[in-house]
Amino acid sequence: MKIAFLIGSDLTSHLIVNDLLPELLARGHEVLLNYTANRPNSQAPAALRRLYTIERALLAEHVYPHVTPDPSRSNSPAGIAQLYAPQVTVRQVANVNAPAFVAFLAAHQVGLTVSVRCYQKFGRPLIEVLRSHGVFANLHPGFLPAYRGVLTFSRALAAGDRDAGFTLHHVDERWDAGPIIAIGGRPLDHAASVLENMCRQRAVAATLVLAAVDDLAAGNALESVPQEEDQARYFTHPTAAELAEMGNRGVELFRVRPIVDLIAREFGEHLRTRLIDVLDRELEHAR
């Protein structure tokens, strides 16, 4: 079966994809990895700009240029392409709704497409093409329908929730509103940051996708249930005031040392000193 991913530029989504890849290849599937990017919002509160630096810019600018392909650890998109072609195709996609890209996916007749924190709004032509050949699903960080939107783990931590997790759901033209295929989660660590909690759920997220892959490969339809609209809440990026209140409740968006430790474990210990030096400079600049 052909499986496509529309992948955001953040650490969590890249770790999830790295975890999924060996499992999918061992099952004999062909994988299309389509990496997307989004620009930082210069008007966002300083805390969100710092989060963008450590969650997104760090990988592209200061990790991936300094790692070599290694099948025993996580890899950059370029490393994945070098290690696993032709079973894996890697593309950088500026606009997922571009007619040429929609035509590319249509030609491949993908059986399952999964969006993993791709922040681009999906247009009707893309949705229709992917639905016509298979299933188009979104791997959403947060329990739906109560936690639609962005940075939902920060809201769950601020609310004192015991658990958080990921929801795999069908894509429609409304944000995070399609029928639910599966939900998985684990207890939140309220002593850890938002980003740490998200990264720790990577195995939960990967398990949801693999279960869907196995069902489809066996010829089964994916069962799903509509979301209960009366339970739905949609969260935008937190304002400066909301971020301050989260801080008062002990919620941190990230902590530098645990994330440096994670990246060094995943991509190579040689990165550790470089990352600490870079973050000292970059985070001060983002204030």
From TrEMBL:
Keywords assigned by UniProt, alphabetized: Transferase
Gene Ontology molecular function: transferase activity
UniProt entry tagged with the keyword Membrane: no
Pfam family, one: Formyl_trans_N
Coiled-coil regions listed in the entry: none
This protein's record includes keyword Amino-acid biosynthesis: no
InterPro entries: Formyl_transf_N (IPR002376), Formyl_transf_N_sf (IPR036477)
The organism's place on the tree of life at top rank: Bacteria
UniProt cross-references to SUPFAM superfamilies, sorted A to Z: Formyltransferase (SSF53328)
Formyl transferase N-terminal domain location: 84-189
Protein name according to UniProt: Formyl transferase-like protein
